[in-house]
Write a structure and sequence with these properties.
The chain is mainly α. The protein is 82% helix and 0% strand.
Length: 400
């Protein structure tokens, strides 16, 4: 097998692993706020399980990045799968026992597994050359299309698997998906762990993070993910509050997840064709369009179209930001840069998820839309600044 073919097979397998991991996250995204609302005595706490999922992702980002440098990508990904299985067992037990605190622990553990799964995109980037890198990142994230198609539907049919204990079956499926990813990793060719000498080399972190391109990459990725998380988390609760059923909310989340990942088949090509900053700006514009739709009405069509546009905007911002980030560090500097990037993104996203339920309960649906608009505008201004500063080009870490 030629080297280009081997790279594409590796990217395909990583995309399948990503698909399994993200399908389990899609099941959780579809159900956790509703289960939280069902189990919590104080309904303002109903999105706490979602926020703790994000907290788990946040707390896992630093250990995931540094552990994979030390023991290799495969061992790191297996660690994440183990956390996912443990979290699914805990959450399923909590639903069975109607325990809100234990359910929160389960979502925390599942979220931690996702902190490891976020490294799939970096693993793909490391296997590709500069020309193929944005496409490799896009294709791995395209694995999330599977989660968009099967995640919410799996949540719907597995909800009654152990009736009358609703939703317990969802977490049996989460455990099975995590186990499937662990098995698939046996067949993925991944680079070995870095030697201690290489791990100790590289520029000081303060010098790396001072690069304008890195600052904009982190800002764009953070803004896109935080806005997406806040709006996505609040939407199912808002729909239930408007009198719609669980199936309606699941339908909207399904299309949102498809919006997040289906464009990945072409986002890398769009970056090559139109340029990185143009795709980032388009992503920010789509997030503003989402807010406009949400302000225009509360029909199912409004929720559906808004969250679909939200997903596409997130895709452009996240893939664009990840591609930009990979141009700011040398291979032996990857652990600290990837750790700082993901810790920042998921730290702010966790805060957004925590605030989602309280903002919706205390201020209403429209207030959330107005709250996120300045965040989106800030990211767009930063990208425009980078475009002007770099005059159409992005210098790489080597000082080009």
């Amino acid at each position: 097998m030629s080297r280009p073919s081997a790279i594409r097979v590796t990217v395909l397998l990583l995309a399948l692993c990503q698909a399994l991991a993200m399908t389990s996250m899609s099941i959780l995204a579809t159900t956790s706020a509703i289960i939280g609302n069902m189990l919590a005595a104080d309904k303002a706490l109903s999105t706490v399980p979602v926020a703790l999922q994000m907290t788990g992702m946040l707390t896992a980002t630093l250990p995931a990045a540094f552990l994979m440098v030390r023991i290799g990508r495969r061992g790191g990904f297996w660690t994440g799968c183990t956390l996912g299985i443990a979290g699914a067992a805990t959450a399923g037990f909590a639903v069975w026992q109607s325990s809100f605190p234990v359910f929160c622990l389960g979502t925390l553990l599942i979220g931690s597994s996702n902190g490891f799964a976020q490294q799939y995109r970096f693993a793909a980037a490391e296997c590709a050359d500069q020309e193929f890198r944005s496409k490799a990142i896009s294709l791995v994230l395209a694995g999330g299309v599977v989660s968009g198609i099967f995640g919410p539907q799996t949540a719907i049919w597995s909800r009654d698997l152990f009736a009358p204990i609703l939703f317990a079956g969802c977490f049996v499926m989460v455990a099975a998906l995590q186990a499937g990813a662990a098995i698939l990793l046996l067949f993925v060719r991944l680079p070995p762990a870095l030697s201690p000498e290489l791990r100790a080399s590289g520029r000081p972190l303060r010098r790396i993070i001072a690069q304008p391109a890195l600052i904009v990459a982190v800002l764009a990725g953070t803004a896109g993910y935080a806005v997406m998380s806040l709006l996505m988390t609040a939407t199912p609760i808002a729909m239930i509050g408007c009198g719609y059923g669980f199936a309606d909310a699941a339908f909207v989340i399904q299309w949102h997840v498809l919006g997040m990942y289906a464009p990945s088949f072409v986002t890398g090509h769009l970056i090559s064709r139109f340029g990185l900053t143009q795709i980032l700006l388009t992503g920010a514009a789509l997030l503003l369009v989402c807010c406009g739709i949400n302000l225009s009405g509360i029909a199912v069509l409004d929720f559906w179209s808004a969250l679909t546009v939200l997903g596409i905007g997130w895709n452009f911002l996240f893939i664009g930001a990840t591609t930009l980030l990979t141009q700011t560090y040398a291979p032996h500097e990857k652990a600290k840069v990837q750790a700082v990037n993901d810790f920042t993104i998921f730290g702010v996203t966790t805060i957004a998820a925590f605030l989602s339920g309280a903002l919706l309960t205390g201020f209403g649906w429209n207030a959330i839309q107005f709250a996120v608009m300045p965040v989106i505008a800030t990211a767009a201004i930063a990208v425009l600044w980078l475009r002007l500063a770099m005059r159409g080009g992005v210098p790489r870490y080597a000082g080009e």
